[in-house]
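thought: fold this chain, then report.
action: predict
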Amino acid sequence: MTEQGAIGDHPIGDITISTIGIVVKDLAQTIEKWAYYFQFNQGNIKINKTLNAITQTLTVAGGNMVFFEPNGSGDRKDILDTEGEKPLLTKFNQASRHESIKLYNIMYRFVKKIIVTKSLYIRVTSLFSNLPNAILLINIKRMAFA
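observation:
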């Protein structure tokens, strides 16, 4: 199968799943059950005006799960009413290019791999020279992959 090209590298890169977003009817109840059964850490509840939804994240080793409860009318409410609770978003990191594909009302978002360069590190350290280097490297990674 490798010789025929059926098995091989993914054309968009060595991707990893970073986030899965799921639309739910009852955010509080869903978060409580998932956190209890799987021992995931709960993030803060947020209101996302762009998505017209209340969101909360569960931190999972290797990625995150974001749950959306519609906060009135909109795309998330329409999908929930017609298709029920389901994944709405899968975000992949380390892609070779930025790309978003919508298929069956699920958004697949590929985020381009960003390489942190020494010049970026020097610029950041000159701005925050009183902070330890380890903290600066973590902050650079968070900036680069946010």
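thought: worth noting. The CA atoms of residues 11 and 87 lie 24 Å apart.
final: tokens above.
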